[in-house]
Specification:
Helices cover 32% and strands 9% of the residues. It is built from 16 helices and ten strands. A hairpin with a 2-residue loop joins strand 2 and strand 3. Helix 4 crosses helix 7 and helix 15 crosses helix 16. It is globular.
């Protein structure tokens, strides 16, 4: 892949190009297995690695269509694909919200509010306390304003009172957050950022349609985690919610590289997880394959190109000023390319060889899983792992697909030990600073 800004369009793509100029491709080196091939974040952002190079230097960066990006933004933020049939008709979440989910409760389970969708009167009411944040009616009012990220409500006025009659979810529920510029959990949208405060299991477990056993599984996940296979294979192994930014030029989008583009995963999530109307079939997944059809219509396929285009326009965020030591990061870059052998797999402008190869689990350090937790790769289509792209890695702890490393320093330490790299404490500290700079 090349990072030619002339081939990019839009401010987001330009930001990505600028980042690539700050961190040019690292030369590849042979030797020991890569120290970072399993560096991961998100639902499936665990990397795999072997010896040798395998960078993606010869691919061209696709240009983005601004009109399609604009359409995709609306799909990403507001389109449910008709999944109200799952969240309303089956799970009865409209009733749960109306009866018991006030804004304070919603914020406590990680739901976010878009401050830019709030009228001035509501903003002032929140500030002076005249807006009741302990009333479900206020949540319904926020849904009517399209102000709750990832939730789309149909609100009707019945006998003079606003009533939530249907509710569904959108991509933004898990893959957007806010900058907290107004208050904790309330601020400007940050699309593509994983909502690591969100407790989707606890939210689902509120449904009166679920058994006690099902609720126990959902409540076991915790904030920032979700199992996108549980409702297919019945196994419980929640993954860290991944970012949806920095994906331009990648073909192996998720940790296991199951599909050839982002649209594959969008269809999987839209149909099998959100409950959107359409069909998803992949006989390779797990041991039994997956084949799901919802509804008699298809509300997903036609929207996939625009949705993918918008997601590809989302650049990874640069590290905040003062968040790393520049001198140490420069030394860490040498370790990354040298004694750490990281560039063996984290190669090319995106710092991944994921477009050219996948890696067996034996070459990673993210597994074995915790006791009693099933292997994530065994539940995939490829049964292999993709090397994680590192742009914006500073932003989304914990790391590895299962969140087993709380910090980048912990990831460095694990690789140094498991791969017998022999890095000194100073080298590990410098390497950590370099990763924080990406």
């Amino acid at each position: 892949m090349t990072a030619d800004p002339s081939e990019w369009s839009g401010a987001e793509a330009a930001a990505t190009a600028a980042r690539l100029r700050r961190h040019p491709p690292l030369p590849r080196c042979g030797g020991r297995w890569l120290a970072w091939c399993a560096l991961a974040a998100g639902t499936a952002l665990m990397a795999g690695c072997g010896s040798g190079g395998g960078g993606d230097h010869n691919e061209s960066t696709p240009a983005l269509d601004p009109a399609l990006v604009t359409q995709g933004k609306d799909v990403f933020r507001y389109d449910t694909f008709g999944d109200e049939t799952q969240w309303t008709d089956t799970l009865k979440m409209d009733q749960v919200i109306s009866a018991a989910v006030d804004p304070t409760t919603a914020l406590s389970v990680g739901l976010k509010v878009d401050s830019q969708a709030l009228p001035a009167a509501v903003v002032q009411g929140i500030k002076d306390g005249s807006v009741d944040l302990k009333s479900p009616d206020t949540t319904i009012a926020l849904l009517k304003l399209n102000a709750v990220l990832g939730l789309k409500g149909t609100v009707e006025t019945i006998n003079g009172k606003d009533v939530l009659t249907r509710v569904g979810t959108t991509c933004a529920l898990c893959h957007s957050t806010v900058d907290d510029s107004f208050a904790p959990g309330i601020g400007k949208r940050l699309d593509g950022w994983p909502n690591r405060d969100l407790d989707p299991g606890a939210i689902i477990a509120l449904s009166p349609a679920l058994s006690a056993v099902q609720k126990a599984v959902y409540n076991s996940w915790g904030p920032g985690k979700y199992d996108p296979r549980f409702n297919q294979d019945g196994l419980n192994g929640p993954q860290v919610i991944p970012p949806a930014y920095g994906l331009l030029g990648l073909h192996s989008i998720i940790t296991t590289g199951d599909g050839t583009d982002l649209a594959y995963w969008n269809r999987y999530v839209g149909v099998t997880q959100m409950g959107g109307h359409g069909t998803f079939v992949d006989p390779r997944i797990g041991t039994r394959g997956v084949s799901v059809t919802n509804g008699t219509d298809d509300l997903i396929t036609a929207k996939l190109p625009a949705l993918q285009e918008y997601q590809l326009s989302l650049a990874a965020p640069p590290p905040p000023a003062g968040s790393f030591d520049p001198a140490a990061a420069q030394r860490g870059r040498v370790v990354f390319n040298g004694s750490g052998t990281c560039a063996t797999c984290h190669s090319g402008p995106l710092l991944t060889d994921g477009n050219s190869r996948l890696h067996p689990v034996s070459e990673t350090v993210g597994e074995p899983e915790a006791p009693g937790v099933p292997s994530w790769v065994a539940r995939s289509a490829t049964k292999m792992y993709r090397t994680t792209p590192l742009a914006g890695i500073w932003q989304h702890p914990p790391y590895f697909h299962n969140g087993s490393a709380p910090t980048l320093a912990a990831v460095v330490e694990r690789y140094n030990m498991r791969k017998a790299l022999g890095l000194s404490p100073a080298e590990m500290a410098d390497l950590t600073e370099y990763l924080k700079s990406l």
